[in-house]
């Protein structure tokens, strides 16, 4: 038997890329590859890339520059670029970095085995099509390999919303939902392999329509024995329908955490962003969600320094944050992306945008800390994911997605432990067994 070839995948960007990287590893498993944790001894390196902001895209080229010398050590090494930079820049990548042998867009991963054969024969391979067929149908999983207790499961991909700043509709294409029966079959398979929590993924996951709505899919998943926790991300405010809100109050397995990006608190800017909701409609929506599930922890995304954002617009964002009080929130400085409508507009001065980002992040951190502190003394359930750095310590996530360190580790990986929170830091909580 020949020794297996080694595959190193580096993943950038969102959770969907994390899921896709697992599927790519499985697809190349059929070509005799096993995964390795370092690029140094790899026969194939894949960068699964993100195009959302300029910095994310530029990182890929600097990483390629660092990896290139490895080809001198191992002449059989092949380097590939996958993901959203691959989709957006295509052949340009091979021109800018000739060490790249393979470029594959996010909808063409099922063609990786053929592409691998092609590059092994010394020819470059490029595929950035949006084929009709379901890429996941062709990605056969390895026989029942054991999985970590929390897994991602992509149910919907692409986006038809065309926010004025965003590349996703171009890099991932139009909104497509996977049929519910395939999602349910994959969930059952994951459970057989040790998974107890799934996070349903989609760029607009609550627009899911794979023969049923997202709320119906969640209710169906809740009947899967052994599956204990369900989450979903990312949602668009306009697709939060009544049934989905009701599910938060009715389905015990649906965890009390919701990522619901709003981007700005200024109606003028929201309009310019083509978001098709207002600050007020977003706040009313959160009221309804909290009425269904009062202890829900909210999270969100913000862009500061969007073209034409004034001090008053930014203050409206700060005010919205004060009203919602997020448990977590991610804020980004606007980055002009080629091909998007907003890229044509006059930009806010970088120093002004930096200053706003600092102010917003400070406010968000204050709230995050308050919410973490408010957990002390409370009893929560933790899905134990792995051993911690300290002797006898285990790490996991609470219902609210808080990272929890359990210090008196009587719990096993995969167990859902009832614990009492005894201490809080900004990014983690410490707990003891009850
Ligand atoms: N589908 C999700 C998010 C996709 S991208 C949604 O609709 O909200 C993740 C986050 O990156 C976005 O929510 C936004 O806050 C940020 N983002 C997207 N494009 C950006 C850009 N050009 N500059 C800065 N941040 C951006
Ligand atoms: Fe991008 Fe807007 Fe679609 Fe989210 S909803 S992926 S921000 S275009
Ligand atoms: Fe980035 Fe593509 Fe995800 S641009 S955020 S990897 S969908």
Description:
Catalyzes the methylthiolation of N6-(dimethylallyl)adenosine (i(6)A), leading to the formation of 2-methylthio-N6-(dimethylallyl)adenosine (ms(2)i(6)A) at position 37 in tRNAs that read codons beginning with uridine. This is tRNA-2-methylthio-N(6)-dimethylallyladenosine synthase. It is an enzyme of class 2 (transferase). GO terms for molecular function: 4 iron, 4 sulfur cluster binding; metal ion binding; tRNA-2-methylthio-N(6)-dimethylallyladenosine(37) synthase activity. With about 425 residues, the protein is α/β, with parallel strands linked by helices. It has 3 domains: about 5-125, Rossmann fold (3-Layer(aba) Sandwich); about 135-340, tm_1862 like domain (pyruvate-formate lyase- activating enzyme, Alpha-Beta Horseshoe), CATH 3.80.30; about 380-434, OB fold (Dihydrolipoamide Acetyltransferase, E2P). It is built from 15 helices and 19 strands. It has a 6-stranded parallel beta sheet, sandwiched between helices. The relative contact order is 0.08. It binds S-adenosyl-L-homocysteine, iron/sulfur cluster and FE3-S4 cluster.
């Amino acid at each position: 038997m020949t020794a297996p070839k080694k595959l190193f995948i580096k993943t950038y960007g969102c959770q969907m890329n994390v899921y896709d990287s697992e599927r790519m590893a499985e697809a190349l498993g059929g070509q005799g590859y096993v995964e390795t944790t370092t690029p140094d001894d790899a026969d194939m390196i894949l960068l699964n890339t993100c195009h959302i902001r300029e910095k994310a895209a530029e990182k890929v080229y600097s990483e390629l520059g660092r990896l290139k010398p490895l080809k001198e050590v191992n002449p059989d090494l092949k380097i590939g670029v996958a993901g959203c930079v691959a989709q957006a820049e295509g052949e340009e990548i091979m021109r800018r970095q000739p060490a790249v042998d393979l470029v594959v867009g996010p909808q063409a991963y099922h063609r990786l085995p053929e592409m691998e054969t092609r590059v092994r024969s010394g020819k470059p391979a490029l595929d950035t099509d949006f084929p009709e067929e379901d890429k996941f149908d062709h990605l056969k999983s390895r026989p029942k390999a054991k999985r970590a207790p929390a897994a991602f499961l992509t149910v919907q991909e692409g986006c038809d919303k065309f926010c004025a700043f965003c590349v996703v509709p171009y890099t991932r294409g139009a909104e497509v939902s996977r049929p519910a029966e395939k999602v349910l079959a994959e969930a059952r398979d994951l459970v057989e392999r040790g998974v107890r929590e799934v996070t349903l993924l989609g760029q607009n996951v609550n627009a899911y329509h794979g023969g049923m709505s997202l709320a119906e899919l969640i209710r169906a998943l809740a009947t899967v024995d052994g599956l204990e926790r369900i989450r979903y991300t990312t949602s668009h405010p306009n697709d939060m329908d009544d049934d989905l809100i009701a599910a938060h109050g009715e389905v015990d397995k649906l965890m009390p955490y919701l990522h619901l990006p709003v981007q700005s608190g200024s109606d003028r800017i929201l309009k310019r962003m083509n978001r098709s909701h207002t600050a007020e409609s977003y706040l009313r929506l959160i009221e309804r969600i909290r009425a269904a599930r009062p202890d829900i922890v909210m999270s969100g995304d913000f862009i500061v320094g969007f073209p034409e954002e004034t001090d008053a617009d930014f203050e409206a964002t700060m005010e919205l944050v004060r009203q919602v009080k997020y448990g977590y929130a991610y804020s980004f400085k606007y980055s002009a992306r080629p091909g998007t409508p907003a890229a044509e507009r006059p930009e806010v001065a970088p120093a002004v945008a930096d200053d706003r980002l600092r102010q917003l992040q400070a406010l968000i951190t204050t709230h995050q800390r308050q919410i973490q502190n408010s957990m002390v003394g409370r009893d929560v359930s933790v899905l134990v994911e792995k051993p911690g750095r300290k002797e006898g310590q285990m790490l996991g996530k609470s219902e609210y997605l808080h990272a929890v360190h359990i210090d008196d580790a009587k719990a096993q990986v995969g167990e859902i432990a009832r614990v009492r929170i005894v201490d809080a830091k900004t990014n983690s909580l410490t707990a003891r067994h009850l």
